Amino acid sequence: MSLVRLCSFAASLRGSVGGCAVRAGSAGRCELCVRAKSRFSGISSLSQRRTFSTVIPKSEDMKKRVLEQWQLLDVLEARIQQLQTDVASDVQKVQFIKVPAHGRAFSSGRTHKGSPQEKPDIPKSGKPVSKGTKSSRWMEKLTREKKNKLKKQQHLQQKLQTSVRDQNSAKSKGSPTASGTAHKTVSSKAKQNRLKLSEEIQTAVSSAAASKKPSKKKQKDPKNKVPDSDGKGGGEHARLRDEQLAEAEELDGKLGGQAVQRLAAEQLQLDAEGAASGDVQLSIRSYLEACVFMGDLERAQRFLLSQHRVRSRRKLLNTGVYNIMMRVWAKKGSLNQIGRVFILLEEAGLKPNLGSYAAALECMGRSPHCPPKVISRCLNQMEEDGLTLDDLFSSCVFRRDEKDMLLKAVCAVEPGYEPRPQVLTNESWSPLVHPFYTQRQHHRYPKLDLRQEELQERFLQQLSVEQACTVTIDSVEATKPVTDKMRRMRELLAEQRALWGKLLLQALRESKMILANANTRDYRLNLYPYLCLLEDGEYVDIMIQSVANMPPSGESLKVLARDLGNKVYTKYCVRQKIQNQVVEKLGSIYGAYTQLLAKDTQVSRLLPSECWTRLQAEQSSGPSLEGDDTCWPHIVTLELGTHLVDMMVKSLKIHSDVLNPSQDRKLIPILYHMYTFRSTRQVGFIKPHPILVQMQQDAMETRLTFDSYVMPMLCPPVPWTSVKFGAYLLTPTKLMRTVEGATQHEQRLEESRQLQPVFDSLNQLGNCAWRINEPLLDIIISIFNHRGSDKLDIPPPMSEAPKIPHFNPQDPAYTASQKALLKREVISAKKKSSEMHSLRMDALYKLSIAQHMRKRTFWFPHNMDFRGRTYPCPPYFNHLGSDVTRAMLLFAEGKPLGPKGLDWLKIHLVNLTGLKKKSSLQGRLQYANSIMEDVLDSADDPLHGRKWWMNADEPWQALACCMEIARAVRSPDPAQFLSHFPVHQDGSCNGLQHYAALGRDVIGAMSVNLVPCDEPQDVYSGVAQQVEELRARDAKDGLKIAQVLEGFISRKVVKQTVMTVVYGVTRYGGRLQIEKRLKEIENFPKEHIWDASHYLVRLVFSGLKEMFTGTREIQDWLTESARLISKCGHTVEWVTPLGLPIIQPYHRTRSQVLKSSIQHINLQISHDTKQRPDTVKQKNAFPPNFIHSLDSTHMMLTALHCYSAGLTFVSVHDCFWTHALTVDTMNKVCREQFVALHSQPILQELSDFLLHKYCSGLSTEAKTKKYQEYRRLMLLLTSVPQTGEFDLQQVKESTYFFS
């Protein structure tokens, strides 16, 4: 029922029982109706008074009727209160007027206006009032709702402590109860259309100040607390509870009172914000931004108002959503519209933020006749809200000339004002890096071996690549001769693609026309704006390219839709930056930034991030380089991609006789939508027609098209200076890789003020320049284009794939067992063929990218996962890849070998063979010298010589090292030989090293080389030896599987399981690892693999449990802590010693169905913060994730200090790379930083953080059900595992710590 009808009905009802106590107009309406009519003239007919005839009943019936009418009247009044904010946007003041008593008591039908008497009680005598009436049920419902609301408020007040409760009490105005007699009357403002423009914006900004009070929901008086209903507790129970409470309070006292209250309040605020946000809010923001970008402002404004008018949807809006429209009107200089949006903010109970005031001031700067007093009023109001001008310029993200217009408005009232640049203080730095930033007198940062002019040219090349968003390169298969059949098929494919492009273009335009007119309800989001962000031809190119890249076996609909949606989003982001005039400013700053890196410029003491920040401050005018655009929710990306896939399936067709003219000619789809099973789930699949597959295979096209972010960068990456800016020039890149749709990580990062060391370490890794090892690349390509090699990890061509047998299942000649066997063979052949295609295409992409980068210098920008582990951004070709990929990479800068460099090359070669793991460095060097003849033969004739290198663990890297050694020893002076080859130093089971250091475990430290030894302690070989002894004993006792395993247990079989046990691998996962290793042994009987893997994983776990008791104690403490935290309803969070916030995104899985015309997609979402944590995943993942965060911290510290020492340094997690000349320096830095890291009280600091985070203010919750769980958690966290007596300083002298 509308507000106008409610008011009219209420007024009429009052008239029938004694007259309306609220002032009525000439038409018999209350003043709220009159105001509503003045705003909504189109529905004035609804506001006309309705008349009711009243028949006077007998006295008792009359009393009953009066009571029911007044009960219904109370319901209507409550409904009016709910609806008033939706229609009375200009409400400024609310008055409460008591209803005269005569209006509630039945008399002769008249009332005495102004009588201040209260409503008399209904007489108890007479007939009882029926409780089955409609009005009584409504009253009971309202009463229940009010009681529930009261309980919720009291619960919240308990959490927010007494101080917060007092504030709420002071703001409370009292709320009407079910039998209350207060009614609201509204006083009107002067009509806004009579205000001048300056007065309107002044009024709007003024009303924003008043939004703090009316926006607060009226709260119950905390004095009216409902007493605890639990009165059954006896004396013994009370005594026990008091003892537990005293113990908890004693522990709680260690946390500090003020800090506890502050953290508790912050946590509650974060939880409330998290519950209010989500995919829906992101969808609203992205939809509005899309409408604005495509220029459809009417659609954007209509959509915002439709969301605002309905309270249930208004709750999903925040100030940022309104700011989107403010920004639009600011560009147009429309103060009138800005004022209206401020009023909408007030109605929504929201407070203007920096973005709101920035838009208002920008609008004033664009208005030539804006009076200075209006600007002053806005600045004063901003100051009253606790916001400063410096915050405005340092925190807001500006587009085009927004900042200049804003500064123009400010200078109109404060001449000479200049924004002050934000200065980072060293107070937020971790103690681990404080000396690094404050003591720079001995730092010598490395330069690139390129001139400034070359770097600027490379910037322009990279810029053109990213503006195009795609790169087309030659395939390494282009060297094959072109046959007539290939040429004919290529021409046919080109002709068909041109036709498909026309069909898709027509289908896209028709789809846009339908969607543009199908939006019957404004609050409904549809895909129309997302289909207008790019040119129509760009959507068509994206779809055609996805058809070309589709594997013969097909692709999952969800994966294909996600990729299509992401491609559109990437192009949209690049177009936005171009439209916002970012490119010009980026070029100017990057040109100056090259002075820091080029070899022909002066040496600077600035780090890359510091230099970039300074240059941005110097060139402060114009747009901000870091964007504030909303990341599309995963559901939006999928919906857009699914729409495009549906268009492709329905539109793309081909003639059935295109390859065989003798067949009947008809149009058939080239893509089919089908279903298949993966495990037990049915999955939608898009599969190409066999005719299309045959055409593509016969054509053997020699051009490959990639997205620009797939390729290495042609210039040094932009340094990371904030969470949202770094890496590529224009392509959007996340600082932290997360699950699709998870936003909690980014929120924690944006709140953190300690990320500078993380930024600088990522920048150091990204600034390493690379080049291709061309002789090795030629050898790999020759094998790839011939027949491949399984032994050398070069996938064979599809011509080597097994033939899929064909048979007729209906043929009676086959028995049931024969049919079953043939079906299994078909499934196996199809699976093998699909795997071969995937591996072949992966190798083709890597080799083609390497061939394209031949003779060029390139860079890999870096980001990290949620644990802090770093990764190169290009997905296919990088130094984290396989042995083949690593072997093709060299440092672009060469350094002389020096006196010990050649020895390190030889030792590195032996390490790659895996033959001398137990030998000392001197022993490895002697072995290398003894096989120099094989080394030189491998370098000179790798494919037809003795082929010694092929038997190494890492054959391609071993061959590359052989070639480098051969060139060095044949040079006139090996010490002066310029080497580009990276030498690796690998941690000795790095996870166990961190555990041993955490627990100061002497035995564990010796096992993993933290203690100086003459020869390395190989924990993998030790476990393998122990397993072999147990196997021999079981074999002697007659155990068959132990006898089968004789001679097959090696270091390699158990290594992966031993290495990953510390990272939380289960027995199931360990069995799969061992199974894979056994399958790689050629002569191991395949029929015994299952039993052997089960048997071995049990022996490996038993051996490790005996060897590392201290490690198990810490692991158990971490696991139990995570279990209790999760049981209390929280996800596990911590902060690394370097200041990086980490949160585990494991929640209970919920299903969300994406409905589309092609298929309903069931999404399994496990990162939703509104769901309870997944206790099993939280507890199992905490120990390995915590150790991963420590090894990433150690790597980052090593990277920073190697950079300050002038070294080239990169890492593959716990494997560190540098030039042969600087291996000794890197080893020294690596050990020093490990000792510095573990000299911090890591476990104690973790305990303190978790106590403050999860156990604050427990004494106020002693009566809740979860109190015992919180108490157990508090007791556990205060019981930090005891440490041993290992001296960390010994690590500095340990040769084999990293070797």
From TrEMBL:
Its EC number is 2.7.7.6. Transmembrane segments: none annotated. GO terms for molecular function: DNA-directed RNA polymerase activity; mitochondrial promoter sequence-specific DNA binding. This is DNA-directed RNA polymerase. Residues 105-239 are annotated as: Disordered. Homodimer. Component of the mitochondrial transcription initiation complex, composed at least of TFB2M, TFAM and POLRMT. In this complex TFAM recruits POLRMT to the promoter whereas TFB2M induces structural changes in POLRMT to enable promoter opening and trapping of the DNA non-template strand. Upon metabolic stress, forms a complex composed of FOXO3, SIRT3 and mitochondrial RNA polymerase POLRMT; the complex is recruited to mtDNA in a SIRT3-dependent manner. Also forms a complex composed of FOXO3, SIRT3, TFAM and POLRMT. Residues 115-124, 221-239 have a biased composition (Basic and acidic residues). Keywords: DNA-directed RNA polymerase, Mitochondrion, Nucleotidyltransferase, Transcription, Transferase, Transit peptide. DNA-dependent RNA polymerase catalyzes the transcription of DNA into RNA using the four ribonucleoside triphosphates as substrates. DNA-dependent RNA polymerase catalyzes the transcription of mitochondrial DNA into RNA using the four ribonucleoside triphosphates as substrates. Component of the mitochondrial transcription initiation complex, composed at least of TFB2M, TFAM and POLRMT that is required for basal transcription of mitochondrial DNA. In this complex, TFAM recruits POLRMT to a specific promoter whereas TFB2M induces structural changes in POLRMT to enable promoter opening and trapping of the DNA non-template strand. Has DNA primase activity. Gene3D superfamilies: 1.10.287.280, 5' to 3' exonuclease, C-terminal subdomain, DNA-directed RNA polymerase, N-terminal domain, Tetratricopeptide repeat domain. Residues 460-767 form the DNA-directed RNA polymerase N-terminal domain. It is found in: Mitochondrion. Belongs to the phage and mitochondrial RNA polymerase family. GO terms for biological process: mitochondrial transcription. It catalyses: RNA(n) + a ribonucleoside 5'-triphosphate = RNA(n+1) + diphosphate. It holds the Pfam family RNA_pol.
